[in-house]
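Appendix B. Worked example

We walk through a single record from start to finish. Start with the input: the chain for Aspartate 1-decarboxylase, Entomomonas moraniae, length 149.
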Amino acid sequence: MQESTRLFMYGKIHRCRVTEANLDYMGSITIDPLLLDATGILPYTQVDVVNITNGARLQTYVIPGNIGAGEICLNGAAAHLFSKNDLAIIMAYEQCPISQLVGRASKAVMVDHNNQIIEVITYQTPSLTQLANGEVPSRAHEPYGIKIK
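Next comes the structure step. The output line below is what the pipeline stores for this chain.
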């Protein structure tokens, strides 16, 4: 019998600023390679992109942009859902065997207004026993420490 798997969020870019929305490109999201490296997201892989500003959500694939430019550009039809300066969260997932979830790392890359990395937080996936015993502090209502204008 094959082991069950779960979709695991292994990396995200949190509260980045959209630098461009380009209708005339055939599709995808362009992301600064430094941000891809920090999260472990590879080019041409699928990501979810959530628009904090208007609530839109979509799936697309990643293409690398210019190194160090802080580029976050929604291309093609996705440009209808995002505008320059919107805030977004970009999340990447992998299919993971259940037996490998506990202790697995998930990276959250925090950026400033120019999409430059200010912090990388690594979270370890707890066991259900740790959760039930109260060994994992709640993150409910945890504020985001940086105000982005």
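Two observations about the output. The chain has a mean pLDDT of 92. The chain has one domain: 5-132.
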